[in-house]
Amino acid sequence: MSEKNILSDIKAQMNHFFVGKPQVVEQVLICLLAGGHVLIEDVPGVGKTTLAKILADTLGLSLGRIQFTPDTLPGDVVGISTYNMKTNEFEYHPGVVFHQVLLADEINRTTPKTQSGLLEVMAEGRVTVDGVTNPLPKPFFVMATQNPVDFLGTYPLPEAQMDRFMMRISIGYPDKEAELRMAKNQLEQVTADAVEPVCSAEEVCMLCGQVGQVLVKDGVLEYMEDIVRLTRTEERFVLGASPRALLALMRASQAKAFLEGRDYVIPDDVKAVAVPVLLHRLVLTSDARLAGEDPERILKNLILKGKVPMAERG
Description:
Layout: H1 3-17, H2 22-33, E1 38-41, H3 48-59, E2 63-67, H4 74-78, E3 79-84, E4 89-94, E5 101-105, H5 112-115, H6 119-124, E6 126-129, E7 132-135, E8 141-146, H7 159-162, E9 167-169, H8 176-187, H9 201-211, H10 218-233, E10 237-239, H11 243-259, H12 267-278, E11 283-284, H13 286-290, H14 295-305
């Protein structure tokens, strides 16, 4: 099966079972194909867990889930070593991260110490316990969910953890037509349990490799860097986008172009992914917060100020 047919089948099946949110489906696929991870911030009940199951089952990947609570420990995530008295040796017991898709549910309900257990996992695709390093399966993709930070019993994610997520997105409530379709699907037994694989893990890895071959011309790359640099010089941001943010913006733009059927990136690809890639990495100054400034509005204005290469306008 050709890569175009595989991508078409993946998008068609995911949109069939996850009704009315094609943009969300696309953003999740962009993160996975670009080798990143996604943070979904939304109120309970809008389908975050269902989306993870549909994704894993559609791609033929194993799904692991951990429900974070205030008493969740790092060992629950990455695993622990225990002493075996019979063999007089320590034995490693893998944690839930040893799946190809990891659903880290309500990540901001656990303590920063446990949240930090995902840093190496997300950045390097491996787990180190007691000095022993174990590689994670490929592909490896973290879908973390969190409730809005003003909900009771939540711990804000530290900046270092937020920077590990390629995108932060929101699903939102469905419109009337989509919500009625969801209800009818339940009545007709068209649920996430009915999802069948349309490809294999090997084919997913092949697609990820091809995303890395998508051409990024110098002018488009300079356009990305210009946007990132503008966030650092914007006086209303105390923290601008990091160099990791530029790499994430580049990879996400490549994946966006790939999903559009192109082997090169255009400025419109950059514009399409810039907000979900950059917004969660930016921190307003205290004065800007007190003034009620909207970081998304500021970022969108900065994107418009970026120098678009004339010969490569989308």
